[in-house]
Amino acid sequence: MSNTQAPEVVQADPNETGVYEIESLCMNCRDDGMTRILPIKIPYFKDILLESFSCDHCGWKNNTVKSAGQIQEKGSKYTFKLDKLGDFQRQVVRSDTGIFRLEDIDLEMPPAPGQFTNLEGIISKIKTDLELDQPQRKESTPELYTALESIIEKIGKMLAGDAFPVTVSLDDISGNSFIEPSPEDKGSKYSRNDYLRSHAQNAQLGLVADDDVEESNGVGLEGVDIVDNEVYELQTECPACSKPCTVNMKKTNIPHFKEVILMATVCDHCGYRTSDVKTGGAVPEKGQRITLEIRTIEDMSRDILKSESCVLKSHDLGLEVQPGTLGGRFTTVEGLLTQVRDQLRGQIFDVGDADLAQGDSMSSETKERWDKFFDRLDRAIKAEFTYTVILEDPLANSFVQRNVDSGEDPQIKIEEYERTEEEIDDLGLKEMKTEGYENDDAE
User: Fold this and answer.
1) In angstroms, rounded to a whole number, what is the distance separating the alpha carbons of residues 436 and 285?
2) Which run of H or of E encompasses 194?
3) Contact 288/311 with Cβ under 8 angstroms?
4) Which of 54, 191, 250, 393 is a Cys-bridge partner for 322, taking CB atoms 3.0 to 4.6 Å apart?
5) Which NCBIfam families does the UniProt record give (predicted)?
């Protein structure tokens, strides 16, 4: 075993630039080097630590970024579509468990020491890494050299802006990676999807031992006659800490709509809580678009069901929430808009904090745009002006309560629409086979 030594903190307090200095062992020459750590607060995100190691003896240097917070309750996947050169300047935090992909050419950057950069920087690094050993490949493996030359050329066109649109994704099971959003992002340009980790992913993060056996010692619902408004308890594994927890489930009937399943998960070990709503039934031929006009504060008390597949929009508010961001929700209009506001604010730090390191705050122009957005959203939640909310659901599983006893509600407009190719692909409807699948199973 090699000799190691515990890092020695040279100064307990940061210097005038906010940097901490720690004496540590150089992994190259095994002599003493210096690690400098700078805490930074990232707008839209959270605290990170920039680490820079340098050794005066051999000249070896290394830079990494680490999360200063804890592992999040859920993993997260960001998908972003670049369609102009300015998009390359979007900030990126990639933790050591984050996987960055160039979706258009199916190229993946595997987990590595964390980075704090922008999209131009991370894509340029991929190109530089591929080019590094090309001279040797040309001599030893010409087939691989030729294949990589084509990929390098495509990445070069991306960076030059000659291959727009370019789709990238960043998937992190720890939830500690991110791509910077903007108030101007509309449609499928930017999306964030939070997901529950599997048992294996929790083991990868060290939240549970690798040799722990995934057990489900609770009672299932096989053969149970589920009664409306009766609460059923299921024992399962907490997606956050992998300890046993309880899922409460209740089937309820929404008047003038359909039956839905309400689910709530509570973990007594780590405090994890979540709620969700599931809808069922056959896949309709068309999607459904529900437009609700908000006129008074009474409209904020209307019941609203936003299914997992539904996009929430409001052109008046400059708001668009993609399906994976909130999941399924059965609440009121006020409750839904409040959840949207709180989640966005949870991503955006108070950039007026005096502890912010120099140079890491958002621009004044961007801050002004976000301030205007949140101010208008706060006023909308109080119904201080008239605006519309749109639920666009390709599976027609969303619902808004009517405020009239009979007939059509003049404030609600319901229309069917043809699903787009993108929606069909996202829902997996092209691959879905409802007839003759028994023969495939037999084969």
Assistant:
1) 20
2) strand 190-195
3) no
4) 191
5) ZPR1_znf
Contacts of 438 (CB under 8 A, 6+ apart): none
Comparing CA positions, the residue from 55, 53, 51 lying closest to residue 37 is 51
**Contact criterion met (CB below 8 Å) for 416 and 343:** no
User: CB atoms < 10 A from the CB of 319, how many?
Assistant: 22
Which single residue is written with the structure tokens 């599983």? 397
At 304, the pLDDT band (50, 70, 90 cuts) reads very high
Other residues' Cβ atoms within 10 Å of the Cβ of residue 150: 9
Instruction: Kindly report, residue by residue over 185-228, the tens digit of the pLDDT.
Output: 887 899 888 888 888 888 888 777 655 544 444 445 555 567 77
Q: For the chain, list the domains and their CATH numbers.
A: 8-67 (2.20.25.420), 75-195 (2.60.120.1040), 211-281 (2.20.25.420), 287-427 (2.60.120.1040)
Query: Which amino acid, 37?
Result: I
Per DSSP, 22 falls in state E
Q: Using CA atoms, how far apart are residues 46 and 93, in angstroms rounded to an integer? A: 10
Token pair in block for residue 404: 């009239």
What distance in Å separates the CA atoms of residue 433 and residue 217, rounded to the nearest whole number? 33
Helix (H, G, I), strand (E, B) or coil at 54: strand
